[in-house]
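quick one before i forget lol
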Amino acid sequence: MLFNSLLVANRGEIAIRIIRAARELGIYTYAIYTPVDKNALHVKLANEAFELIEDGKTPGYLDIEQIIAICNREGIESIHPGYGFLSESEEFARRVQEIGINFIGPPPEVIKLLGNKVKSRQEAMKAGLTVPEGSDIISSTKYALKEAQRIGFPVIVKAVFGGGGMGIRVARTNRELRLAIKSASAQAQAAFGRGQVFLEKFIEQPRHIEFQILADSYGNVVHLGERECSIQRRNQKLLEEAPSKALSPEKRKEIGEMVCELARNLNYVSAGTVEFLYKNNQVMFNEINPRIQVEHPVTEMLTGKDIVKEQIKISLGQELSFKQEEINFRGHAMELRINAE
């Protein structure tokens, strides 16, 4: 049985997408908005909308206390975080569940684990996936220099926490490495509140391939094929397309089985994306995004499956509504991002 009400803790395109899916399932929808978004489309489409009061300290869409207070006051039964903002906040997911509200996403403990890229790499290795040579969290310049020599230049300095292409620098010499660590750490601290970084072998001009997964609470996991996002600017995706021209049906099946096994090992639930670097027919694990992604419509166009509706149903304890053999890939789809710079 579906719940009766859902709050979308987000704005813009993804808020509209979630509201549409919820309405088609007969669910009463609530939106939140900051003053600048009062005339936004997601506010108009929701059944009800509440303004977030900004105090200059915590941006409205990141204000956990205020969002939870709205849910308690209105008796709202579920929250969908969308992508960005609080979607990868273990604290938000845990707080929501603690007060008896349904969180539409992975369990808090899984979000916490996957938020740490070093631990994510370790889990991928346990599942038998290949990962680029890398280090533990950098504890000192001496340790970083030693690890860089072991791994071999060039190396990439990456933020342990966070994403969005921030906290990433490439180093080809010891001097560049020292500067890269300082720069990446400072950016990660400013963006995510955590400045820890680690090293990884820098792969020159790989393809960037990501697989969409869905998993329920009963151990059922499916993949919905790949999206290629090799065209990027400043480590951020500009164009996503599916299927990838680089993968044969056999390779797609092989990688798909690997990502499903990884999800089972993690006790993963809901929608997620497993990202890989692909070069010379070698697949190397990059990271897992424990949320719906911006580019999910590409996969929906190709498969005809509604990922957001499936997320909602899974969060209610329902089994996946389809099996792997029922997923067919038809046609070709692209999504392009327009950046305002």
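fyi The first helix runs from residue 12 to 24.
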